[in-house]
Amino acid sequence: MQTDQLLSLFGGVLLLLGLIAFFLGRAKAARVRAGGTTMHAQPDQYAWFAVLATAGPAIAVSAVGAFLLLLLEVEIPELGLLAGSLAVAAIGLGLGMRQVRPDFHARKAIERVIRGALLTAALISILTTFGILISIVFEALRFFQMHSFWEFITGTVWNPGASFLAAAGRAEEGASAAQFGSLPLFAGTFMITAIAMLVAIPVGLLAAIYMAEFAPRGVRTLAKPTLEVLAGIPTVVYGFFAAITVAPIIVSIANAFGLDAAFNNAVAPGIVMGIMIIPFISSLSDDVINSVPDSMRQGALALGMTKGETIRDVVLPAALPGIISASLLAVSRALGETMIVVMAAGMRPNLTANPFEDMTTVTVRIVAALTGDLEFESAETLSAFALGLVLFAVTLSLNLVSVLMIRRFREKYRVNNL
Amino acid sequence: MSQTFDEISAQLRRRHRRSARLKWVSMGALGLAGLFLLWFFSDMLSKGLPAFQQAQIQVEVDYNENAARMGRAALDRDLSRLVSRTFERMIPVQMRENPELLGSKETRWVLADSEVDQYLKGHRHKLNDAQRVLVDELKAEGRVELRFNTTFFTTGDSKMPEASGILSAAVGTIMTLLVTLAIAFPIGVMTAVYLEEFAPDNRFTQLIEININNLAAIPSILFGLLGLAIFINVFGVPRSSPLVGGMTLALMTLPVIIIATRTALRSVPDAIRHAAFGVGCSRWQVVRDHVLPLAMPGIMTGSIIGLAQAMGETAPLIIVGMVAFIPDVSASLTEAATVLPAQVFTWAGEPEKAFVEKTAGGILVLLAILIFLNATAVILRKKFERRW
Questions:
Q1: Rounded to a whole number, what is the distance in Å from the CA of A49 to chain B's nearest CA?
Q2: What's the complex ipTM?
C-alpha cells in the first residue's frame, strides 16, 4: 500500500476512535453525574480526556515507528506498524474510559497535556537553530576533511574546477587541482556591503533625524510606513532592478569619467542593497532618537545651544549605542543578502579594490554550488556549507553585539519600547 | 579679550544657519529615500505594464493534409513567420482530435510571435525589413493589434516569451504558502502563548527568547541550507516540491509570527486575566476564552505580514531547488513546482529581450499581491485595534 493511503487509513480510523471516545466518555460521565455523585470535572472534560488517551499514545507510537523506519532504516512492516498503533489507540480508549471516575481530575490532566504541547512548540524554534547549525557544521566538516581550514581562510584563489568530476571518479590527469581560498569571496562581500552602508547609513540616519526632530507629526506618520515599503520589496525584484536599470547607468557614468566598468560591477548591487537597507537604519534610529529623554534636550536648549547643536552634541551621542546597533543589524543583513548579488554581481572570484570590476560574494558561490545537479561527495557542493558556516558565525556575532548594545541603551535610559 | 556685540551676533547667526542647514540636509535625505522609491516604482511600471498587452494577428488557417504533419503548412508562408510557434504546434494536435477539420478553412486571431509584439511596442526586435513592412501593412488593415494579454495569466512557463505566463508559479506559490501557514501559524501561536502566559521566568525561557530573536536575523539563505541538508537529505522530502519549500519558509516565518503574537498577547490588559481567574477559570481557560480572542486581530495582522515576507522570499527556495522549469500546473505537494519570485528569477536569466518585459510584468503582479496583503494587515489592525 502507498504511504498516503496508509496515512489516510490511520487518520480515518483514529478519527473514528476519537469520536467514539468522546461520545462514550461524555455519556458515561453524564450518567455518573445524573446518578447524583459530584464529579471533579465536567462531562465534556472527561470526554476530551478520553480522546487524548486514545489519540496521544497512538500518534506517539506511529511517529516513533515512522522515525525508525525512515531514518534508521529498521525493518518494520508498515502494515504491522499501522495495526500496532491502532491497537494502542484501542487500549488507550479503554484505559481512558476507566478514568471517567468522580475522583479523577480530568481538567487538570488535559491542561498538563496542553502545557506540554505548548512547550514542545516552543522547543521547535530552538530545534531550528540547532538544525541550521548541525546541518551546516556536519557538511562543512566533511569539506574541511578534503581541504585544509587554513587554506580555506587564507587562500586567494577560488577555483572549484574539477572537483565535481573528481567526485564522480572522472578526474582527468593533469587537470588543475581544485583550490578553495575564500579570501576573494569575502573581499567581494565586504566591498558590496561597504558600498551599501555608504548609501544606507547617511541617508537612513539623516532621515531618522529629520523624522524624529524636525518633521511635523503628519509628515512623520506618513514617511515612516512609506520608507518601510522599501524593506518590504522582495529582494529578487531589487536584483532585477540592479541588473537591468542601475548597472547600465553606473557603466555609462563610469565611462563618462573615462573609467572602465563591467556590467556586473560591485557598485550597482551595492547601491541597490543600500536603498533596501535604508528603512532598517532609519526606523530603529528614529525609535532610539525618540526615546532619548526630553530633559536632555531641554537642558541643552536652556544653555543656549541651537537645535542643530543639541542634536549633534547631546541627542546623537546619547542615542549612539542604538544607532550602532541598528547599523550592525544592517551590516549583518547586507552580508547575508543573496538575490541582489546573485542577479547583479559577478560570478568570477576576483580579489580587487576596484568596485567597477565584477566580483563575486559568499552567497553567490553558495547558490552557484547548490543549484543544478548536486553531488554530495564533491568538494564544490560541500564548500557551500563551509561558506555558510562562516556566514552564520559572522552574522550571529553581529546580532549578538547589536542586542547587547541596544540592551545597554535601554538600561541607561530605562526605555521599555525598544 | 572681549568680543564686540557685532561679532557675537554674527557668531550666533552662523550657529543658527548651521542648525537650519542640518534641517535641510536631513529633509533632503528623507526626500532622497522617497525619490528612490518613486524611481523604483516608475521604472518597474514602465518596464512591466507592456507585458499585460500582447500582439495578436489575424490569419487564415487552412487545415490541409500537410498541416496535419507540420502546423506551419496551414498558414500563409509570409505570415507564418509572424505567428507564434506554439500555435503552429497546436494545429496537428487539433486536427488529430477533430478529424472533420481536414479540408476546412477558418479565419481567426492567434498569438503573434514575440518579435512582432516587441516591434509593435517600439522595443528592440529582430524582424527583417520585409517582415516589418508586412506587419505595418497588416496593422493598417487592422489585422494585427495589441490586446490584453490573457496568456500571461493562463499558462505556465515556456521557452517562448509570447507563450509564457505566471499561472504555474502562482499555483506553486499558493501551495507553498499553504504549507508554510499550516506549519508556522499553529506552532508560532503556541510558542508565543507558552512564553507569554505559561513559561516560568528562568534561564531556559530566556534561552528560548534569545534564540527566537536570533532566528529572525539569520540570513534567509542559511534556512535553505537547513532545508537541503535536513528536510531533503535526511527526511527524504522530494526536492523542488512545494512541501519542502513550504517547510523551509515556515521556519523563517516562525519568528515573525511569534514576535507579533507576543506583542498582541502583551497588549491584552492584566485586568482581563485577573477577572477571569477571579471567577475560577484555570490558566488554559483564561487563555483560550479571554486572552486569545482579544489578541486575535494582532495575531492575524502579524501572520499576514509574515506570510507576505515569505511570499517574496527566493534565496532559500533556490537552494531547495524550486527554480525548476515548470510549464504545467502541478496539483500535488510533492511534485516539482516553482513560485512567483523564483519565476521572476528564471525569466530574468533568459537571454531573450522579450523576457525582460515578462520579468517586470511578473514583478508587478508580485508587488500587487504584496501591497494587497500588507494593506489588508493595516486595515485589520485599524479596524480591530483596541486602546485599553
A1: 15
A2: 0.89
